[in-house]
Amino acid sequence: QVQLVESGGGLVQAGGSLRLSCAASGRTYAMGWFRQTSGKEREFVAAISRYGGSTYYAESVKGRFTISRDNAKNTVSLQMNRVKPEDTAIYYCAAGAAAQLLSYGRADYWGQGTQVTVSS
Questions:
Q1: How far is 115 from 120, CA to CA, in rounded Å?
Q2: What is the 3 state secondary structure string of the chain?
Q3: Distance separating the N- and C-terminal Cα atoms of the chain
Q4: CA separation for the pair 95, 32 (Å, rounded)
Q5: pLDDT per residue as tens digits for the range 92-107
Q6: Residue 49 CB neighbour total at 10 angstroms
Q7: Does residue 25 carry a pLDDT above 90?
């Protein structure tokens, strides 16, 4: 069983930056971030392979968001730069068998989410 706990959400102005973190317990998995707004399905944001060799990003965040991990601390982070109002959502940390599978929406474990609000 894997437990995922997100932190770092909050309110940020458009054009600013925010960093989300996720602390994981248990064995090492591929990790990723998803987001969801009210009335919409959860969507993939970014994923990183088990040892950080491969990363995947949604087109909407490429060039602005960066996913990274520290396996010594069992954490994964999402650096969000040049944020836009449309980035407002609840962001969920996820773990799964492979980063590519995460990019297809196939996660085995989920965190409880952290709210990110971008003001215009």
A1: 16
A2: CCCEEEECCEEEECCCCEEEEEEECCCCCEEEEEEECCCCCCEEEEEECCCCCCEEECCCCCCCEEEEEECCCCEEEEEECCCCHHHCEEEEEEEECCHHHHHCCCCCEECCCEEEEEEC
A3: 40
A4: 6
A5: 999 999 999 999 999 9
A6: 18
A7: yes
d(CA 20, CA 42): 17
- Is residue 38 classed exposed, middle or buried when 0-12, 13-18 and 19+ CB atoms within 10 A define those classes? exposed
pLDDT digits (tens, 9 = 90+) for 33-71: 999 999 999 999 999 999 999 999 999 999 999 999 999
Nearest-angstrom CA–CA distance, 40 and 3: 25
> What pLDDT is recorded for position 26?
84
Predicted confidence (pLDDT) at residue 28 exceeds the cutoff of 90: no
The 10 Å CB-count burial string (b at 16+, else e) for 92-101 is bbbbbeebeb
